[in-house]
Predict the structure.
Amino acid sequence: MRRRTFLVGSVAAVGGLALGYRAWTNAFEAQAAQLVARNGETLLGGWVKIGTDDTVTVYVPHVDMGQGTHTALAMMLAEELDADWSHVSAERAPGEKAFANRFLAEGWILQGWRLPVFLDGAIDMGFGEVARFINLQITGGSTAVRFTGQVGMRIVGAAARAMLIEAAARRWGVSAQELVAAHSIVTHAPSGRSQRYGDLAADAARLSVPASPPLKPRKDYKIIGRSVPRFDIPAKVTGALQYGIDVQLPGMLAATVKAAPVHGGKLASVDPTPAMRIKGVERVIALENAVAVVARGYWQASRGLAALEPVFTDGGNGTMSSQSQAAQQDQILGAGGSSRHKAGDADAALKAAPADRVIEASYRVPFLHHAAMEPINATAQFKDGRLTVWGGEQDALGSKAYLAKVSGLSAANVSLIALPVGGSFGRRIALTAQHLHQVADIARHTAPQPVKMIWSREEDFAQGAYRPAVASRISAALGPNGMPTAWSQVFIDIPGPGLNDGFLIPYAIPNQSIRSVTSATHVRTGTWRSVAHSQHGFWSESFIDELAAAAGRDPFEYRRELLAPASRHRRVLEAAAEKAGWGTPLPAGVGRGIALVESFGTIVAHVVEASLGRRGVPSVHRVTAAVDCGDVCHPDTASAQIEGAIVMGLSAAIAEEITVERGAIVQKTFSDYPLLTLASTPPHIEVHFLRSEGPWGGLGEPGLPPVAPALANALFAATGRRMRTLPLIAAAHRAAG
Amino acid sequence: MTALKVNGLLRTVDVDPDTPLLWVLREDLGLTGTKFGCGAAACGACTVHVDGAPVRSCSMPVSAAAGADIVTIEGLAASAGLADGALHPVQAAWIDLQVPQCGYCQSGMIMATAALLKKTPRPTDAEIDDAIGNLCRCGTYPRVRRAIRKLSDTT
């Protein structure tokens, strides 16, 4: 099974679905208009509001975590609408079902109904087929531009444009064919008449929404492809932007919590007295697996919490460690595993190969923490039988459904006000939203007063939802010409939201057998930027490099030969090599490494130049990226996403590692989980986009997976030492020691 | 009662003297542009100016800031003698180069940069590395350096 698949039975069922989908959409459009359109404003197509003053407001069903999606999605809609960009703005769509992101669902329909596993739980399987999508309003999976934009905002924009033109045609009694729309004005050239969108919108809203309006060809783009200033930036440089942690409500209390350090443990007992002695502390609340202190302010709450000596159980996990988990994984890696991908007969090809033509290697990656700069927090108020929660969640409707479940209220009595989030990277989705459960419980005790719960940085580290620590073993047989004839792999899967099809390799190897074995861990795991691609990219692209070395071939040429001529993958690989000056001389001690990974519909190749410092610290001098994500909506933001992914990827590859001892997370804060700093960021990072006719791909995540292998490969080129365990700083130390 | 001078205004607050300046700014004075990141002076999200020097306000007790000239991101432009609503040159450069992603660390980045450039208008790369130890998880560092370079080339 490549991804969790859900099928809607038969072709006939799909037809029925399309009809039901349309009715559902129409009903929600009316509700959406009620929610956001005020006097003098008209909502068209359910997602774009036009004022009599010609302002265009685009409602975006994604949270902007810094990816610039609000600007990009508004651009896509405004492009098709032929709107005057100087009057366009974007707003976060309300966390209501009327603004559920049906475009994500459509994106998946186009992809053959393969539902990413990170949405498990966000979708209520108890509803009928259509309503499966109702809770979708998630930001994740690099879906904003490629799904919401492509199959949503552009179509809505084109539909609204057609409606405005039709409204003008009826008003003037002319054919719509004679009308032209540009800069938010419809013009009838033969008669010299023109009308602004603001004057046409109310009439347009009475027309039916065309189902499949034609979209512009790329050559006619006026807005897409321009690096317009992002909407969100001014408020981010003045301190004016209100993140979840900045909510201020009358009478609001502060709270902080400590949960069982061993995941799966419960609170056994706590004596509240020491905290209650601290000025400003109002109460100590025993939760199922945590203790909370409520106070006048955060500082008092945190002092109160520090004074407590809560006793937690360990859920039977108190002897687990990173070492014991690794040993257990090594053991099961020897087992056959269940097939995830098969071509030809890899076993037979490996058996037939002479022993000196068989290469084998094992790789391991650690748990990783999201470490977003805004610590986990949420604010909640129980009042008059209703629960209102303010917070920066990636997944407003999923979080709302989760809150309804844990609070026992009906969804109608739960509101989630989704606010900007100070980084998330996959952390704040409903599947790993225990903080929402906590704040709802705490607010029940403080009702009717609202309470803002903030985790200390230490709690944020201790209670993460980490990228799983996993391993893989790969063997390959090389033919007489040094090219691989067989690739046989087994890797560890941790059940949870972090699975995807990242294990597939792009290379033409005739015999492939890729298998997985399942390993359990008591440690909470989640979706970390690029999800399972982060580990699969590392070992697949390290191993292909090992094969090139074993064959005595240049690692770029070797990969290139295994990619189909004129394929997107090959073009991207070649572009990265060319822009990086592959093959040109380097200073002594510096090596060049390359890696190529496709994820979320986008193909990325990085070339890294690096050396190993005296104390085993990898030093990165230059990174050159080549990216094919189909078309590019906002080039500057697209570059920023790749730059950021390179920095985060280097940070993780070089030094990040969450370890477990006696069942608990060892790392407490940034001092023992060192992030890359400005000083250690390579001075040269270049990003090159290759525009292709391929479907639009994502950009938030795909820049990350090739980073670690490109760096490890560069260090191999520099030192002759192959590092198969992340982080590289630890691997370098081990090798040196 | 503790008397504080924040963004040019005298404010009195009724808090324990050991309360970190950060929480007084955020919770008692409502200046939420200064962010909580770690509480241990490790990330720089809470950077403010105290008598012109960049200070990590999560680790400075409010009593130590009493009587000093405190400037937060909200008062940065005014502290440079600029009119209400104007942008400090560092803020303008940040917009020009579209530096922020999620933006959460950027108040601290901007405050650290403004303090650096006031003291050292043309910093070397090593001086920039030294002064800007702020953490950014989105990875905006390449643009932060470019923005600082641009500002120092124009001063």
